[in-house]
């Protein structure tokens, strides 16, 4: 268990440790793994809470035009986007994606070491370049400062993309993108 704990940089909790031990041929239960980890003082590291800076300018909050209608019938009618953080060997990186809700495919993505509007604008530019015909597209996101910034909002206008935003603190309004990130992180 010490070897697994060290090899995985102390990121495995009891469930992942159990899975690893079973893969190695051991027959143990979750409770026994929990007790042994406690006895050996093997504690999994938890990711730090990320605090995002609040901007000084007033934010542009767009109405929720998507209203949880996650199954449009045509491509390039509704896009959805969000940002998440991903742990790499070099440290934390931020990933911004844009997904077409009709096909449920990621049409663009961008990485950065900072979760700012430059990151989201880069992902938007890539989506517009890839899809070309993006007039009358509704882009749905949360109310994060990266999406409410003047820079991002002017980019949406420049490309003829309409803005839609989830209600404050309601991740279910952007459930498809949130679910994609959950799958991505569980497969990591």
TrEMBL record:
Pfam families: HTH_21, rve. InterPro entries: HTH-like_dom, Integrase_cat-core, RNaseH-like_sf, RNaseH_sf, Transpos_IS3, Transposase_IS3/IS150/IS904. GO terms for molecular function: nucleic acid binding. One of its GO terms (biological process) is DNA integration. Residues 68-188 form the Integrase catalytic domain. SUPFAM superfamilies: Ribonuclease H-like. This is Integrase core domain protein. It comes from Photobacterium damsela subsp. piscicida.
